[in-house]
Design brief:
By secondary structure, the chain is of the alpha+beta class. Helices cover 49% and strands 9% of the residues. It has one domain: Cytochrome p450 (Orthogonal Bundle). The N and C termini lie far apart (66 Å). Bound molecules: protoporphyrin IX containing FE. This is Cytochrome P450.
Length: 486
Amino acid sequence: KRSSARIAGLPLPPGPSQLPFIGNLFDFPQQPEEWKGFAALGRLYGPVVCMRILNKDIIVLNSMKAATDLLEKRNALYSDRPRFPMACEVAGLDWILAFMPYGSEWRRHRRALHPHMNETAAKSLAAMQEVLTARFLRKILAAPEDWSEALEWLAGATIVRAMLGVDVADKNDPLVKLNKHIVGIVIGVASPGVPWAVDWLPFLNRLPSWLPGMGFKRQAAIWKNEQLRCREESVAHVKRDMAAGTAVTSIASKMLADEDADETVVTNVINVAYLAGNDTTLGAMRAFFHAMVLHPVSQREAQTEIDQLLGGARLLSLEDRPTLPYLEALVLETMRMYPVAPLALPHCVTENDEYEGMAIPKGATVIPNTWAILNDPAVYPEPETFRPERFLKARRLDPLMPDPRNAYFGYGRRMCPGQYFAYNEVWLLAATTLACFDILPVKDAAGKDVLPSRALSSGLVSSVSKFPCRLIPRDRETSERLLSLV
Ligand code: HEM
């Protein structure tokens, strides 16, 4: 039986029928690729699906219209997060902006980040991104088989350079290590599908650690110490350099130089940028290589467009973006087909609401199904086909085509604050790599192409797994000459 209506006699959104107490526990889509399970429920019940697990209402949004109507147009009601007791209260990760409840603290942190990450500010970081991307290309010219490690280096080097002004070492960089340590802890406590009893029964956190079954508290205490120590160290590094007069300008140094700045907020947002920006951007960049291995015709088309613009005379820069519509379409199509956050992050509704005759109960967790939105055949016909042309009309970007970034980077007031910085990085990587290399599949012993798996991993960040590919310089001499100038 479905639970009875609770708001002015309106029914809850449709969904599978519920068992007593556990509700829809057995209907809940399972990893891997649980977004496909949510999309299947959407085909059965409609774009807004309601489920209940134990004591929690869960509303899944499977269409852009529903996501826009609620998360964007009613953002005053839909910008909260569900509570994450294990991550925030037990493991002390409540300083992470992405987990913060909607309110004044959250707003203070977003405001601190905004001047440094908005669209205009992101442009001023592009020159640094161009230099690091050129270093990446030099690395893969020298050792193409190590492209995956070089890409990991690029993702870490860019965010650390932007936030802390530090040039990351080629291997074993201490600041990258610190940040990775925090990421590991966040993955340990906050990954979807990691069941912590305390997340469902928060009173467990009030029981003493020595009781049987309270092992999670002892483990979390260790994680808490570790992550708080690491988080202080990265900003302390910048402060030391500033005191010695050797600091390179960075977002941290600019924030700290502001007399009115609250140091705790600075430490929080500087650290969250690596957490939220490293693996996501890496996943997006790896997806680009994957798409190119699988779609040589699109790759060739983008290279022709680039060659016509450059004629091998210079390297591409971000300023070339408007003159390369096919390349832009190719990057957008890659983002559409490889969403790094297929279920975004959950939102939470703060008041009882009504939508198209259905009750949305206060406190419900709202899961936007970005994967379903970006694979909606009514918007993107034959969504399983990689087709950059879908974004073009008469060889220009079609302004009527919905931009996948409006889902890819999340929704409403919680939309990703790093989106411009991240997009520029992925675009630069795609543009400059295609200018210099052919990206081809590896061959097996019989000389046949080995194509990598298309499956997206589940977790806080989704992407294709690491895979081998062949990177063949298109014109080694010219590439080496141009890259040596950067
Ligand atoms: C390709 C790369 C990236 C993708 C796909 C991505 C995607 C997302 C998504 C889907 C959300 C959740 C939005 C929502 O709740 O509706 C988010 C939140 C967030 N992202 Fe990104 N992101 C990327 C890169 C970055 C970078 C480089 C930063 C660095 C500043 C960053 C910082 C954040 C933060 C701090 C939040 C939490 C915002 C909040 O809760 O208010 N992200 N991102």
